[in-house]
Amino acid sequence: MLAGLAFKRKWQNKRKAEGKPYDKPNIVTGANVQVCWEKFARYFEVELKEVRLRDGYYVMDPEKAVEMVDENTICVAAILGSTLNGEFEDVKLLNDLMVEKNKETGWDTPIHVDAASGGFIAPFIQPELEWDFRLPLVKSINVSGHKYGLVYAGIGWVVWRNKVDLPEELIFHINYLGADQPTFTLNFSKGSSQVIAQYYQLIRLGYEGYKNVMENCRDNMLVLKQGLEKTGKFNIVSKDNGVPLVAFSLKDNSSHNEFEVSEMLRRFGWIVPAYTMPPDAQHITVLRVVIREDFSRTLAERLVFDIEKVLHELETLPSRIRITAKIILADDEKAAAANKEKRDLEKTREITTVWRKFVMQRKMNGVC
Ligand SMILES: Cc1ncc(COP(=O)(O)O)c(C=O)c1O
């Protein structure tokens, strides 16, 4: 939000200086943006222009994004690691196309990179990937320390390319705490524990440490992905070279859908969200598993095993879709209820045993 505000103010100042209207700012993003960008647009009265998705392509198309840019565009926001499927958007291509358009039009539309997850992944496992200040139009980058920065929740930051990219008028200077304190925040006081935790992780792990952790996450992601592929039941909609997560959908969801898989997995202690994609891919539902440092290979294998059990169980159940369509007979319903009760009891016992064993062995499951 602070990065967006800086772009808006910079654009307004430029338009004022040129004697042009400055009351209709817009920002261009993919329809896959995280909700913080919608929030920014609404709170700061900036029109959100979203590039729609399409079947099989779930990130912002750089060509379409550049086509949507006009003289009122404060910036194009690209995501390094789409929240929905972890895919890295092509920031380099976006930069190159935008450089061309700026040359033709005389504008200087900049780029922001929302590297909430990818900012702590790409530098360690894809250092050659150009997505950052190596690209001339990238003026600011945000990253969440509490994702792959490996700190507990509540820390993130934004970095500007140059001092001029953050208008001075947005910075307040206070001196009543004994020294000059420049502040550019939406609130004021904030605890420092997360900053200390981040500092600790940086010096404790260093480049090598973060690299090991990220490689490990990627390897465990591949174990999970391959396990899911082996079932033959899923399409994988995430990419191997993005955020280490697996987003997948059922090849055939005509009888049972992803929401049922999600719901049944809860009984095994797994919370795997199912959700629909944004426009124009909202007919696709995916399940998503994000692999973090403490998600070991053992857990990945365990999850595949439990998903297989859920699939097997679903096969034995009548289609919920057809139940809603009222084509199931009352007798079948009664029998299903009795069976379900029995199965639930057995399942609860099984799950308790498995998790107790897992918790007892937990110390042996360390990732790094
Ligand atoms: C791409 C992206 N941007 C921004 C955010 C929000 O970041 P934070 O949780 O640090 O506020 C997220 C979080 O899920 C995200 O995935």
From TrEMBL:
Keywords: Calmodulin-binding, Decarboxylase, Lyase, Pyridoxal phosphate. InterPro entries: Glutamate_decarboxylase, PyrdxlP-dep_de-COase, PyrdxlP-dep_Trfase, PyrdxlP-dep_Trfase_major. It comes from the Eukaryota. It catalyses: L-glutamate + H(+) = 4-aminobutanoate + CO2. The keyword Lyase applies. Its cofactor is pyridoxal 5'-phosphate. One of its GO terms (cellular component) is cytosol. Its EC number is 4.1.1.15. The modification N6-(pyridoxal phosphate)lysine is found at K147. GO terms for molecular function: calmodulin binding; glutamate decarboxylase activity; pyridoxal phosphate binding. One of its GO terms (biological process) is L-glutamate catabolic process. NCBIfam families: Glu-decarb-GAD. Belongs to the group II decarboxylase family. This is Glutamate decarboxylase. It comes from Salix purpurea.
